[in-house]
Amino acid sequence: MRRNAVILAALLWWPAVAVAQEPDRPGDKVSFELESSIIFVKGSVNGTDGLRFIFDTGASVTVLKPAAARKLGVLTKDDPGGRFFGLAPVFKTVGSIGAGKAAVADLPVAIMMVPQADLPLGLQGIAYDGILGYNYISQFITTIDYKAKTLALVPNDYTPEDPLERFGRRAERAARPAPTPAPAVHIGITYATIGDDLANEIGVEGGVIVKAVAPDSPAAEAGMRKGDVIQEIDGRRVERAEDYRKILARAKAGDVLRFSVVRDRKDVDLEVTAAPRAGE
Q: I want to staple 66 with a disulfide (CB 3.0 to 4.6 A). Which of 82, 142, 143, 263 is the partner?
């Protein structure tokens, strides 16, 4: 009976193996040159050979330098050129790009200058056309043989993230306002934005939960307790920890702050005198 169960399990598992999808891109074993401890490979873009790429596992995206992109027709006269320092790369999708026969189809590339490579390599007279970066390299299992100076590129089934999405998130983060500096005053509590589950349980929409109250602190003297959920300070809504920090950043030592908190599902009002932070 046990043997039959094993056979049945094997038969149920087998179709999943049979329909597994193989990567539809070719692999290859290619030679490379090593200059200044940098790997350079010969590659192609859209069927045009004779290009020289840096093979860089640390590059977040595959890059074509503007001169090469224009020569290949990837960048036209109507497109803006690449910007220095990668502040505004031009993104294009090339039909194919790769080293040797290990090509990837429809790959987004950034057309831009790369000063951190261009300047030191230019001083040594080393030229290159672009960089094979993360969104290319991650689609292969790569073996580097430094003695033989070869790269073995075996296709895998991994699909990397679109670099446009990643660069978009970086731009969004860069546009965010700087975090509020630590206030010059304190009331003697540790705190955090309340989690959604606890907020729903006690019936509040956001707020800052008091995690601890220091003995003999202004908060302790005012009667604040661990577990209180701060909702307002001086009539200003407090939905998250950043709101609390912004309000206290405006306060001065000696100011009396009026707190509205929820305790045991009841509203409680407290008056807390702000104290100077140590060293202020």
A: 82
